[in-house]
Amino acid sequence: MPKLPKHLLVGSTEAYSGKSATVLGLGLQLQQRGLDMAYAKPIGTCPSESGTGEDEDVRFITQALDLASNRVRPTLFCLDEETIQSQLASSALSYRQQLETYVQGTGEDLLLTEGPGTLEEGILFQLSLPQLAEMTDASVLLVARFRSVLIVDRLLAAKQKLGPRLLGVLINDVPAAEIPMVESQVKDCLERHQIPVLGILPSTPLMRSVSVAALVQALDAEVLSRPERMDRMMVEQLSIGAMNVNSALRYFRKAHNMAVVTGGDRSDIQIAALETSTQCLILTGHLPPKDEILSRAKDLEVPILSVDLDTLTTVEIIDRAFDQMRLQEPVKVECIQHLMDEHFDIERLIAELSLQPAVTA
């Protein structure tokens, strides 16, 4: 009978804290040390557009870690409206028995499980993070996005709910100016309360960026220029071109890797944007740009998107895309690997889990 693997459940205090990126970074580090791991995401939250029912995060992480099929556990269900309505109607869906076999293993050293987006998500199905940890005898690594020193309150509350199963925390997306305070005061306070701080990751614009392709999808935009560049162009900032051209130029020159939203009839703003660090132009009102704009954008390899929306609606959709940024760009894989190598104490994690790495990095 295959040995039972160690089980690490990665959760977060709020959605979009960097949980999937942490799972990927951990997986890469563990593989570098010769550890055989399996990956699971019981609750699907990012269904594939293909309609296959496959979670996009599962597909991407499986591919990025080059995992064999017997090292990937199936998603139990997708947390969508249809599944929730079925549960509300009958409370008939039960996954406890499936979870008993979920952690049996096929010879791997560690089962790395991506948990729900919050401590409460999934509680309708009796699969919240604390419930999952208890049912599968898992240790928990909690990812928390830094917003203020109130992060301490959230993590102390999480400790109360998870108890000794809380193996440690990773504090993510810390602004450069706040890092000294977090590394001293916040970390010291948490460690005094028996909450090990295994990593403090600095804010990185690239990890908070979205691809032009993702904006095209979110906006249902028509691509007028350089569609082949959409997957490679990463947007880190949003600028709105609604002022006079001189003010716009001063504004644009301060930005980096931006998307510029402006009216399709504002050729002066469009030219100004193309002369600065612009990753794409987003033209509102479904008005076509002039031929010279299209020609210049083609020469500079800048995609132009046209949307049948007003500026306010366009900006709101893009803001949501930034808030719900996804990992699924290869450049982000390299970035998270570097961040985890530099700022996460993988050796402490391995020791806490009593794993025996085959190689020493």
UniProtKB/TrEMBL annotation:
SUPFAM superfamilies for the chain: HprK N-terminal domain-like, P-loop containing nucleoside triphosphate hydrolases
Gene3D superfamilies linked: HprK N-terminal domain-like, P-loop containing nucleotide triphosphate hydrolases
DRTGG domain sequence ranges: 215-320
Top-level taxon in the UniProt lineage: Bacteria
Secretion signal span: none
Pfam families membership: AAA_26, DRTGG
Protein name as annotated: Phosphotransacetylase family protein
